[in-house]
Amino acid sequence: MARTLNGEVDIVIPTIRSLNFLEDWRPFFEPYHLIIIQDGDPTKEIKVPEGFDYELYNRNDINRILGPKANCISFKDGACRCFGFLVSKKKFIYTIDDDCFVAKDPSGKEIDALAKHLENLTKPSTPYYFNTLYDPYREGADFVRGYPFSLRAGVPTAVSHGLWLNIPDYDAPTQLVKPLDRNTRYVHAVLTIPKGTLYPMCAMNLAFNRELIGAAMYFGIMGDGQPLGRYDDMWAGWCTKVVCDHLGYGVKTGLPYLWHSKASNPFVNLKKEYNGLFWQEEMIPFFQSVILPKKCTNAQECYLELAKQAKEKLGPVDPYFNNLADAMVTWIEAWEEFNAPAKVKNGTA
């Protein structure tokens, strides 16, 4: 399936270093187009292995292309990846971190993570009624007894959230108390996250349908100059889940796995996460209780409403959330500029 969709997929990679890790992915990524977002020093040379089709953007490019709207793109933070989502014109996006490598399944076979993500995204989800055999659309599975026939058609899948072997995705306090933890358990399962349930989205192995949900897949302003970091993907995950629930789309998690090769520094992470460890106790209840009006019929409208409600409800927690809400609005303005419908002239688009 993956090979037939290579004209509909962009792979977005944020990085501060040369991309030698792509050699490991060459058999799976070489047919696709890469969008590389260079974070940090824009004068540093980023080397990309020969044979890959790619475009590379640094901070100078982001400032030039977005002008005054560039302030909605984070600096010195993995959240810079969402600039790649903005400039892409493809239906599907796969984003991966540069410390992630090809994993093997229990039989020893290398896992084509992108192919599995595309399989997840091109098959329906079941957010309204849980199937106890997990994904009923996978080969060799079906709906269990008692599953309503009226719900078996499912809904379009907007997000495919993959997992990781080796280094777990822990927060800094957990890293500090469990420095030797490794994930060695391969669970052969994909499940739809039920409607009304939030989850902590990780961006190191993530794919989504840009046409359905791309406008809400914004990673906020974090990192340099901001009082918060390492919550960029979780913020985007909470936002997109609320929007998917409202619009009737599905979110899947589970397969595919990749190999996460190294843990980030827990002391550096603690400094970035410190405020978030307190603020998440306000953020999560906000997303659990948010209600989007029926007039919001697409991701852009939903996201602007989320920005409005975030400013009202989270602004009193800290002024940072007022700035974040403003950046959410700026992001949608940029999104609509880059994704304006084709103009019609003389009856043809």
Descriptive notes:
This protein has helices at 22-29, 59-66, 82-87, 113-121, 172-177, 210-213, 232-247, 266-289, 299-314, 319-338; strands at residues 9-15, 33-38, 53-57, 92-96, 100-101, 157-166, 190-192, 205-209, 250-260. Strands 1, 2, 3, 4, 5, 6, 7, 8 and 9 form a 9-stranded mixed beta sheet that branches. The protein starts with 8 loop residues before the first strand and ends in an 11-residue tail after the last helix. It has 349 residues and is α/β, with parallel strands linked by helices. The mean pLDDT is 95. Helix 1 (22-29) links the parallel strand 1 (9-15) and strand 2.
Overall body shape: globular
Question: On the 0-100 scale, what is the average pLDDT?
Answer: 95
Distance between the termini: 30 Å
Structural class: alpha/beta
Q: How much of the residues is beta strand, in percent? A: 15-25%
Describe the main β-sheet briefly: 9 strands, mixed
What fraction, in percent, of the residue positions are helical? 25-40%
Whole-angstrom Rg? 20 Å
Low-confidence stretches: none
Could you state the order of secondary-structure elements as H and E? EHEEHHEEHEHEEHHEHHH
By DSSP (H or I, 4+ residues per run), the number of helices equals: 10
| Number of beta strands | 9
